[in-house]
Amino acid sequence: MTTEKKEQEKVDIHPNKEGYEPDEITAISPWKDAFRRLRKNRLSMTGFFIIVFFIIVGIFAPLLTSHGIDDQELVNRLQPPSSEHWFGTDDLGRDILTRIAYGARISLLVGFIAVTGALIFGTLLGIIAGYFGKWVDMVISRIFDILLAFPSILLAIAIVAILGPSLQNALVAIAIINIPIFGRLVRSKVLSLREEEFVMAAKAQGLKNGRIIFHHILPNSLAPIIVQATLGFGTAILEAAALGFLGLGAKQPTPEWGYMLSNARDFIQLAPWTLVFPGISIMLVVLGFNLIGDGLRDALDPKMKN
Amino acid sequence: MDEVVLELKDLHTHFFTDSGEIPAVDGVSLKLHKGEVVGIVGESGSGKSVTSLSIMHLIPKPPGKLVSGEILFKSEDISSASEKKMRKVRGNEIAMIFQEPMTSLDPLFTIGNQIIEGIRLHEKVSKKEAKARAIKMLELVGIPRADEVVDEFPHQLSGGMRQRVMIAMAMALNPEVLIADEPTTALDVTIQAQILDLMRSLNKEKETSILLITHDLGVVSEMCDRVVVMYSGQVVEEGTVREIIKDPQHPYTKGLIRSLPNLHKKEQSLYSIPGTVMRPKKDFVGCRFASRCEFAFDRCFQESPELYSLDNDRQSRCFLHDEGKGVEEFADTNIRS
């Protein structure tokens, strides 16, 4: 670096009286501020890129490979990775890379839909319980407690068993078991926000309950919801994979990663690649979401920064 | 005096808790005239904040409940008004500012948005007009570069600035009554004086009546026309500022004034009233201050004193007035002998 440049920097850091314009301070929204902090977090940006990578793979799957998800080449069963089949082939001679690429669509969509469903219902119930309290809170909280009393995967199995095994029903089940997680989170946040003076001040201005809830309480409880949603993405994908593995989710020939694992189980010694690649994909996506989630938590809660 | 804007008649607000019913406001009556500043003074737990929240119907219920009494706003009883009616009153006719300016603004919205929200709620004006008015209000409360501050977020302002914003927000709709619940408690002394000046000038300019709730007698003497002293949910003394400060009638008020630091006397330590405020109890018999009162005699523990009306519209809740003597004389003859 030349001395000239260094000089330049110095001036920037310590502006002289003429150069310093206090009036130029621009408004910094707390959201923008959080986003800036997130961008500085290397780990969560890594997570972000992992997810972006899988999204791109999912979207451009047809361009990435010339095989179809159900192109069976029975002569090429259980082939190890080669230049033709990068990730090898499975027991029906299907290209694993192709199936993983198309599977990315399913897994990400599963995560998105399940989390969105759980988020919407959980947040609504949580807000109602927290804001109105009394018997409403009593009823909703007990429902959450009942849902949480079961191990989540057991509950999901029970729900799928009632609805019948299919990918859609697995989605519904995953959404339902995640509702109380969002609900309780939102409820506790609303309970503390309800006592905040700005809510009292908003009431003293004559605002309606609905407006206070959606304009003041909801935006202020958004931070933990976003964090939970990101982390929930990972869990939802894992749960979908687990249901797929148990044969309660996707059916043949859907290339769902969990279901691929389940199929590969029989060839674990004969053809480990059938198991390794879907497994690594699940791990990477879940890791990606968890990294983003952790980063978001730090970025949205400046008090935890140090 | 001008017309009465706000009047409380025998207001009772009780809290129903697991450990029984607590009459936090126990028969409070007071009047607020147009353009007048009335102070409500008392220790923590004396019921002054609950009184103000009762007027706005902002008592959290349960456990709180307005049990009986009337709240006359411009001679209309709003004590049992519907929530819908109260929403029209709040902000528009009776505005309120709170103790903690740091937390009274929503951290996620700009200053302007929060003022505009209130204006647009009660009046049909365009966003642009509302914003122009918000800027005007911010200028009025003495915020420099108001046109920029309007787009800033609460965390970018200091405590004093935020309290000014709160006042601007409260005054934006030209309310008849401004209830200020310890508006300067959380601010340092110099800022305190500025905020009080500001409120005083708004009161003069716009003829807004102010109900000032505080425990600071210094603030009261600077701001108020009349003072209501509260103790354990009841009014114990009422009068003009001058009278209360110069010639307190109730032993509690006397104690409060004695516990103020005095510039002209050299004192080793400040006086403090012994004991703590009695938690309001239901069906309590006797004077609530008796256990801490240096003038207390038998009757104080056996009967509950009523408010005695004295000269010049003054009131005091003490049996000493029955004895036909002021506190001073009584003290001289009975206690210090």
Let me know the average pLDDT of chain B. Answer: 82
Under the CATH scheme, which class of chain A? Mainly Alpha
The domain count of chain A comes to: 1
Global morphology of chain B = globular
Number of helices of chain B: 12
Order of strands across the biggest sheet of chain B?
6-7-8-3-9-10-12-11
Rounded to the nearest angstrom, the distance between the terminal CA atoms of chain B is: 44 Å
Rg of chain A (C-alpha, Å): 25 Å
Notes on the protein architecture:
- The complex is a heterodimer of chains A (306) and B (337).
- Chain A has 306 residues and is mainly alpha-helical.
- Chain A has a single domain (33-62, 93-304), classed as MetI-like fold, CATH 1.10.3720.10.
- Chain A is 71% helix and 0% strand.
- Chain A is built from twelve helices and no strands.
- Chain B has helices at residues 48-55, 83-89, 111-122, 127-140, 146-149, 159-171, 189-206, 217-223, 241-246, 251-258, 298-302, 327-335; strands at 4-17, 20-33, 37-41, 64-73, 76-77, 94-97, 177-181, 209-214, 226-231, 234-240, 308-309, 315-316.
- Chain B has a domain at 249-262 and 270-332.
- Chain B contains twelve helices and twelve strands.
- In chain B, the strands form two sheets. An eight-stranded mixed beta sheet of chain B has the order 6-7-8-3-9-10-12-11, with helices on both faces. Chain B has a four-stranded antiparallel beta sheet with strand order 2-1-4-5.
- In chain B, 33% of the residues lie in helices and 23% in strands.
- Chain B has 337 residues and is α/β, with parallel strands linked by helices.
- In chain B, a hairpin with a 2-residue loop joins strand 1 and strand 2 (20-33).
- The longest helix of chain B is centred in the middle third of the chain and has 18 residues, at 189-206.
- The interface between A and B is medium-sized, with 24 and 35 residues.
- Chain A: InterPro entries: BP-dependent_transpt_permease, MetI-like, MetI-like_sf, OppC_N.
- Chain A: Pfam families: BPD_transp_1, OppC_N.
- Chain A: Keywords: Cell membrane, Membrane, Transmembrane, Transmembrane helix, Transport.
- Chain A: One of its GO terms (biological process) is transmembrane transport.
- Chain A: The chain crosses the membrane at residues 43-64, 106-132, 144-164, 225-250, 270-293.
